[in-house]
Amino acid sequence: MQGPKAESLLAPLTSLGIAMIPYYHFAQGKVAGAEVFISRTGYTGEDGFEIYCRAGDAEQLWHALAGPGRAEPCGLGARDTLRLEAGLPLYGNDIDHTTTPLEADLGWIVKLDKGDFSGRDVLQREKSEGPKRKLVGFEMVDRGIARHGYSIVDGKEEIGVVTSGTHSPTLKKPIGLAYLPLDKAAPGNEFAVLIRGKETRARVVPTPFYKRAR
């Protein structure tokens, strides 16, 4: 459940003080009679809650939350647009086994000083030397929508690939994410995306593209 009404929709269904759950924290209790974990997290950039329940309780919870006059269901397409506007990477598109947290601007979730873990030496070396590429946000300058997998070129050289791209309903313009070499990754830098074989200009911009007012 995401958006400004999430708390008011969920509160009548539970005795948990959900208003007191801090962002990125969770609580355990009952919602509509089902034992659940509730986390104040989400993949849309909005304040909201995610509910974890037993499979057998899912239908009961669905009807309690999405009944008439309550939450309105939406699909993965809407979720994907919202997470991109919020600059949140998608595994399989923007991050995978070939990328590192430092390249993806996720270094804040890796605690190199908290003891040993698999890959720590590699990340320490990458941090000291600096990553060779960076995940950046961009907006289209020319008309066109850059989609996942489209090539990014500088002259005749391919310098990157679009990892996510769509038209942003909130910003009313096409946006996307891509890995670029560090010397091409500064905000304001322009590059070309090959859209149906045509070079289409795009510009690096800061992320997140959209940030909820707090």
Topology, please?
Blueprint: H1 6-10, E1 26-31, E2 34-39, E3 50-53, H2 58-65, H3 76-85, H4 120-129, E4 133-140, E5 151-154, E6 157-168, E7 173-181, E8 190-195, E9 198-205
Antiparallel strand pairs: 1-2, 2-3, 4-7, 4-9, 5-6, 5-8, 6-7, 8-9
Task: Compose a concise summary of this entry.
The protein is an alpha+beta fold. 15% of the residues lie in helices and 29% in strands.
Key terms for this structure?
single chain, 214 residues, alpha+beta, 4 helices
Structural account:
There is one protein chain. The chain has 214 residues and is α+β, with helices and mostly antiparallel strands. It has four helices and nine strands; from the N terminus they run H-E-E-E-H-H-H-E-E-E-E-E-E. It has helices at 6-10, 58-65, 76-85, 120-129; strands at 26-31, 34-39, 50-53, 133-140, 151-154, 157-168, 173-181, 190-195, 198-205.
